[in-house]
## 1
Amino acid sequence: SGCCVVGVMVIALLVATPILAVVYIALFPSENIWPHLASTMLPRYLSNTFILMVGVGIGVTLIGVSAAWVVTMCQIPGKRFFEWALLLPMAVPAYIVAYVYTDLLEYAGPVQGLLRDWFGWQSARDYWFPDIRTKGGAIAVLSLTLYPYVYMLARAAFLSQSVCVLDAARVLGRGPWNAFISVALPLARPAIVVGVIIALMETLNDFGTIDFFAVHTLTAGIFNVWLGMGNAGGAAQIALTMLGVVMVLIGAERYSRRSEPSPH
């Protein structure tokens, strides 16, 4: 009815208003610093964001898909416990995990302290230990907290697959690994892609973790330009760049659904 259409349009307008405001401020800033951003800080923001998203994408795929396959297709001790326990990282903010891992793994933390006691090392010059507060550390922490998106969707895809298909692959001479690579994984690919894209969107909008690890991404750039430089227009322009990245991710998700293997 007409009332429903009007209600939907009102809700859609309310949801779209912040986005439209960001677009307007970005296109008509009171002080246009885009040329300065594009020639100085923006390349670093883009490169760091790209590296972070690629690393997290690989990490959540490896952890999420392997965990989903093991708890779905393998008989392991505590299987029923791990089926739901592997979702628990979603309940913990990534920046809290970052604080915990940093306290555990930094020079004054218990891990390095125990290693120095065991091997008799006196200072950091006596041994090598990876620095947790780097881009690699941020990738590791975000991967460990965001993989449940991939795990949840991949496990649902594996559960929906017919056992007969995998049995047929085994009868035709495929080993367990080959059956997973050539049959199960292609069928689950669209669901896995969706999970990875959701994790990448979470990575893109994360601020607490990347700020703690001092990784300058597009999100950090918004805060730096808006609060540090007092320029809302420049921050909106960076936000518009992030919106473009999100649109690319949404396009990739739609493409993955369009190319989903047919069950027939």
## 2
Amino acid sequence: SALGVSRMERAKTVTEASQLLTSALHDRRILIVVDDVWDAADFLPFKVGGSKAVTLVTTRLNQVAGSLVTTRNDLFKIPVLDHNRSLELLNALAPDAVASYPNEISEMIKDLEGLPLALQVVGRLLREEHLLGWGARELLHDLREGTRLLSENAPMDRQSVDTDDVPLTIVALLELSTNSLSDEVRKRFALLGVFAPKPAVFELEAMEAVWEVEDARPTVRRLVDRGLLEVVPGGEFQMHALLVQHANQMFENEHAV
């Protein structure tokens, strides 16, 4: 509708709607962003731009990303933020807290391992605490010691219009990835949180020992595809700090009496 496709509301199928959009955009210079794709098939109706259009697709899933590109140059993996970039982000969100608690903020950044999602949430909480006129030292302590971060609301750009006005929490956002795993793989992911060193970097042999399996590769492949493990140089795999908290909580819920 925003692009002036007047007949769009009369389209009876997704294919028909896609064709209408393709026709409307045939000669347009336009950037099309398709955000957070979970299934490659869901992207196909949005392949609607002509020769002057550029399409940017974002996804958390390596398998989806790989299936949508034709060359390696078309794929860009967004890295976590280094310490300076993390500090820059927090300073933009909560400058007073950063100025007042430089040492605690530095330690918090190390704990969060440069994960933008976690940094955004922490920045918002620090800003809210400052607006209330309270110090942020206790908040920083709570965030570092427990799983409070998981229960906080996700950033607005991760909220959905289909949540019946109930804000999506960080743990609910992470569950979009873990709930799609089989029971066996989900239990193995939870076990990694229990045995995670700091930082949570695992060798393949260590995971085989924890899971009591002869070959951990099928499970590791699945976890990497879902963005729950990250490949690091040297043949090792890393689980980011926020995911360690999530895995621990999953394990505790599984074994709660």
